[in-house]
Fold:
Amino acid sequence: MVSNASLIYAKPPHGAPVPGETIKRVVDDNFDPETVALNGGILVQAKALSMDPYMRGRMRDPKVKSYNQPFPLDKPLLTLAVGVVVRSEYDGIKPGQIFKGMFDMSEYAVVPAQLVKMGRTIENKEELPWSTLLGACGMPGATAWCGLYDIGKPKKGETIFVSAASGAVGQIVGQLAKREGLFTIGSAGSDDKVAFLKEIGYDVAFNYKTTSTEEVLEQHQLDIYWDNVGGATLDAALKNFRHHGRIIACGAISEYNVPEAERRGIKNCKSDMNVVTHSLRYQGFIVSNHNQDQFNAEMPQLVKSGEVKIKEHVTKGIDNGESFLDMLEGRNFGKAVIVFE
Amino acid sequence: MVSNASLIYAKPPHGAPVPGETIKRVVDDNFDPETVALNGGILVQAKALSMDPYMRGRMRDPKVKSYNQPFPLDKPLLTLAVGVVVRSEYDGIKPGQIFKGMFDMSEYAVVPAQLVKMGRTIENKEELPWSTLLGACGMPGATAWCGLYDIGKPKKGETIFVSAASGAVGQIVGQLAKREGLFTIGSAGSDDKVAFLKEIGYDVAFNYKTTSTEEVLEQHQLDIYWDNVGGATLDAALKNFRHHGRIIACGAISEYNVPEAERRGIKNCKSDMNVVTHSLRYQGFIVSNHNQDQFNAEMPQLVKSGEVKIKEHVTKGIDNGESFLDMLEGRNFGKAVIVFE
Structure:
């Protein structure tokens, strides 16, 4: 018998999730790794659990449709994670292997066969930290790669603006864009984060809490805007585009925690006819629909060699959801991950 | 000497243009077609003058940037038009030819050389009415053609929704889409217009003033939305898309007359993450940047043969701007044109 802590989804939040209430730590003191039923799946001991903004979207009333399923109540949150296989009833997977895929936010998790099938075992030849396998070399890194190349189609000499630029995705976008010869502008929410943006090569970096995004962008003409935040920032970007600009719609974190009726909306999108008059393309994508072979082949080495620098926000062990809320509200600095020793 | 009536741009409107005040009819009683200076341009006698929603955008404070120039004050509105050449100082253009291009909203207009260069003489082999040369076979028709094929990329079996579907552009979009094997849904603002939509082959047609757009669209899954109106209609469409849907951003007539601070904005675009979660592409275009050769080659015959049906809203002669305001506020029924006997 071991104790097994999980982060449980207790009820849909109205605005922001409330640690200890809508999400909370629950410990099973009678978890038996030797005998727990696997039903054709595998048992993993978690090494790292990813915390990502999109997860807020699954904390919803099941009646609201979306691209993903709502989280079931009173179960652990499900997330992208890496762990070491303890037992397996799944063909081709053996104890000791590293499994990367979706599983419960728990110290020990039973991964049902259909989720095992969607994940994979990895070798981690570059010996990157567990957290990095979920960050720069995981879903956020792949999002940056596929979004920039497949949707943004960057050309040397163009200008890109990235919001939430020090975040898990933004920090990779800026560095990839720089490698392609773009002029890069990034915004973030603290002076520390701005210093980091300069360190990783952003040409212009500013703290949107102390500097007006509108005033900074007025001095530039954008070809690409990587939109992580939506709302007023997107509106400001829309006013400063060159013709044939592209907006990569990656997220709208400024509005995730805002109930529908109170949302600000986008006012410059059609109102000022900017999308029409500048022939803009505003396009969303889901990274899992994109081919990630090139990313998987190149990114680990770029990180290992230091050509792409990364910043991670690592929490040790499962808490009551405070670190998840920090991530949603921007108090993390870099990719937010829970790790276990 | 003849009298020469013009529609003059007198001052920028705050909301809607005011006939007789911000735009008004002015008559020059001493216009001499024989002696008026051409300075290398041509003199035309107008046969038809186009009235289009985008012209509202040129009635603005010159300090506000856009893709086109603001109209100069105290001059006639400039528009796409056809006329017969009376005199010419421009190489290759002779009296009696039909000229199609931008010129003043006047009975007689001097077209300066740089505008002559951007226009062209036409033969009108199909002997279409003057008005049609500005409608289905003019800019609105080309907008429908290039927007649908180049931006919408329609595939047989898909579903398209067109707002302002009985308008100059919408009526062509629906018929072209139907020819490509799409299921077509159109909205318009009166029962007469809805009857016309059914007559020209729309599979579903409804009056958005008496039927809820949201309720109609909930019964369908869209692949393409041709957006002529923006605002709440765009929001309703955004909730009912299949994955990889396309929104052709053609206009936002619901917000042209609304001052910036009072605009509604788009709330479902990023807020509900629809653009992201459904991998939507929302794209604007300017028809003059698109190749129109195929349109020019095929459209006149489609109209002549009746394969594409058209509806025009014809006003005889220049008024005080009432017909222009009618067009902006949807009281026209089909392409709005001023014609002269």
About this structure: The longest helix of chain B spans residues 139-152. The longest strand of chain B covers residues 78-88.
